[in-house]
Design brief:
The complex is a heterodimer. By secondary structure, chain A is α/β, with parallel strands linked by helices. Chain A has two domains: 26-57 and 66-221, no CATH class; 238-378, GMP Synthetase, Chain A, domain 3 (2-Layer Sandwich). Chain A is built from 13 helices and 13 strands. In chain A, strands 1, 2, 3, 4, 5, 6, 7, 8 and 9 form a nine-stranded mixed β-sheet that branches. Chain A has a four-stranded mixed β-sheet with strand order 10-11-12-13. The longest helix of chain A has 30 residues, at 296-325. The relative contact order of chain A is 0.10. By secondary structure, chain B is of the alpha+beta class. Chain B is 48% helix and 12% strand. A five-stranded antiparallel β-sheet of chain B has the order 1-2-4-5-3, sandwiched between helices. Chain B has a five-stranded antiparallel β-sheet with strand order 6-7-9-10-8, with helices on both faces. The radius of gyration of chain B is 30 Å and the shape is elongated. Classes of the chains: A alpha/beta, B alpha+beta. The A-B interface holds A 1, 4, 8, 11-12, 15, 22-27, 29, 31, 33, 52, 54-59, 96, 98-99, 101, 126, 128, 157 and B 239, 322-324, 326-327, 331-332, 334-342, 347-348, 428, 432, 434-437, 440, 443, 447.
Chain lengths: 378, 487
Amino acid sequence: MKKYLITICLLILSAATAGCWNLKEPDQLAIVIGGGLDINAEGRLDVSSQIAVPAGLGGPDTGPSKKKSFVVVSATGKDFMDAGQNLQTQLSRTLFYAHRQTLLIGQRMAEQGMDKYLDMVVRNPKSEMRSVIFVVKDGTAKEILATEPVFDPLISTALGSVQLALGMKPYYYREFLCDSRTKGGAVLLPAISYNASTKRFIYAGAAILNKENSHRLGGFLKPDESYYANWIKGRQRALTVSTSGTQSNGSISLRAQALKSRIGVVKDSKGMRIHIQLSGKGNLVENNTMRDPSQGKELRKIEESLSREAEQAVNKLVRKAQGQYKADIFGIGKHVHRKFPGEWKSLQNNWNETFSRLPITVEVQLRYEDPGQTNSSI
Amino acid sequence: MSSHNERTVSQRNAAKAVSPSLTENEQTLRSIFENCSDVVFRRMTMQGNIFLLLVYVDGMIDKDLVQNTILKPLLYEGIPQGLGTLGSLAQMLDMELIAALQTQRITKFEEAADLILKGNVAFLADGDPFVLLADVSQYETRSIEEPSTEAALRGTRESFTELLRTNTTLLRRIIVTPDLKMESFQIGKLTKTEVVLAYIDGLSTPALVNEVRTRIGAIDIQSVLESGYIEEYIEDTSYSPFPQMQSTERADVVSAGLLEGRIAVFVNGSPIVLVVPMTFWDGLQAPDDYYERFLYVTMNRWIRYLFALFSILFPSIYIALTTYHPEMMPPKLMLSITGLREQSPFPTVIEVFLMEFMFEGLREAGIRLPQQIGPLVSIVGALVIGQAAVQAGIISAPIVIVVSAAGISSFVIPRYRFGYPLRMLRFPLLVLSGLFGLFGVALGLIMILSHLIQLSPLGTPYLEPIAPTSKSKLKNVFLRRPRKRMN
């Protein structure tokens, strides 16, 4: 009994005397819900933070008197934390980074290269690694942070669900970090842009950050190109593929689920060859053609034409990556590394160059699972 | 106590032995029962020369029985003819006249006075140096009612009463074997309370029975008003928030305990019977756990375990998470809690403390209040504490949720008194979490656990079968297996 009392007294004393008091009431914190990194016109780092205004979020009172649910503050600085300190001067509460949902990177910053700024998110123990990361195409992070979201009270939480809604796995900062550590190739970051007319954000495809060029922005993929790229990388879960029908003969759409991708690396006397095998199956969700999917033969033809259609799109994307961007955005380097670890040592430093000259073949297999609820087109 | 050592007039007189002279005996008895207005002395003369004195306590005897079976035959019919070899009047009364089951002859006033006070009628006859006592006791008691603190959906509806004999009868009716032993003790110099130690010979360990027997035998107190007196004397660790003895008002619970080889202690005047030894898990089992279908019971048990944890931890975890580790909360939850907290003027710890005190106050008030005012308390509690405090912005809404959820979950625990330690230990945990966050909560839990592991009432580890682990018994803690497989 006495021992207990003494222990408790000592503990309380130690807290009081050592000043080791971590207590922070929630209303002493400025919860950073989204972060944005930009380079301003003078070439200085411009950090913006979207800070939740809890009074505008919680509580039963809704209506015109309700406060705005967030505020965006920004400051410049030598690095992220220096800018953070400058941010703090504008706020009456301590900045709290652990709930940051989204990290946005302005296009100008991506163009200058992300290499320098990778460290700060990981090193700071208070920072959140599970923020989804986006590159802002043709704009600044600040613009996106200030937009009013449609559903959620905060834009930052909404951005995380954008990718899910499009059928892909959300891309977190943590994954960006992992991808950027291996040598060779490029990182594919999701991109978003600001639509000035609707004052809303819009998914803008993917940004290519070249790993061999200190993570500088190499270009953007269009949204539909990004779906195929993600399919190859195994990040796409569902995708609607349509045949390119004309107005007269109509088109067929297949909502493909269970997307799979296999990347085969073969090396023989003629050198290294890559074969990309993509597969998926799903339901026929639309049919505007004269074809009748209830007949086996027709169905085979539909599958065939859908597969070819997708194959063409993927082929086009591969050529674009090899020719225009000259960057391995598909993570093929990883497969080469695994299969030929010896060769990889010499290849890794100049992988993009090698990649752009590799012969790559693509094969897509789409299968139907359900022809839909009707026979031929109504 | 000064009176403890000095003997009173009654005690001095009671030490005397019964003499053959009736007048002398009457004088002694009258001085013993001096100023006891409820003690009745009745002098009778039969056939002119035989004097008889009846002494009894008014209200404790069956008057009809005495009148019909003793007085009437004596007064109307007189002494039966042919006394023959019978030596004395008292002997005659004993053998031939008094139609009562239990009679005894006492030669000491001390014992006689005790028996009179317990509802015997004393007969003193001239010339006989002893008192004849007939047990005709009958007094007003509460009838057997439904258990009020241990409700169960299934199982007996009979609960113990204040009368020891009724209670032991209830038990005898369930366990019909001469192996059910009931050893009687008399404890308390003034209350002379009968305490019965019940166990089943052959099922309980003799060492355990011996230990309890010695402990009860060693009790030396003035009074026993409730079984709680006995509990405190025979429990191992007084400085523990946890009850080390199961107390129940249900005969089936006592029987179950006895059949598991445990020991029951009945105390006259108390409807609460003690069952020893008790383990931590007994505190979380309900009477109908073994009557209802095993699947529901298993689910219910888990609900109880979770709620027990919840009731002790929820407020302190809330404090630790919101004020020390806000990064551990889901962002949306954190934001809404922060939003709801914006208005409140007190730190979270203080808020929780205030509300916990209010809750405990309401609980205590609820027990003490007369039934008519009971609903008032809940209305005032709900309105003032629940709504008004939040609307006025004095207390934040999450705190009300936390405190009431933790409060309710402590009432999920079926043995009412087992909820006490959980509710009580909440407070030190609150302090610790307010000072050190999760680290403090962990520290507090470690202290509680190490205390629980130390506890070993009557040699049975309190946390058995978890610590020390016993695989076969373990299954009955986590699950309630079907009876066919329970062995």
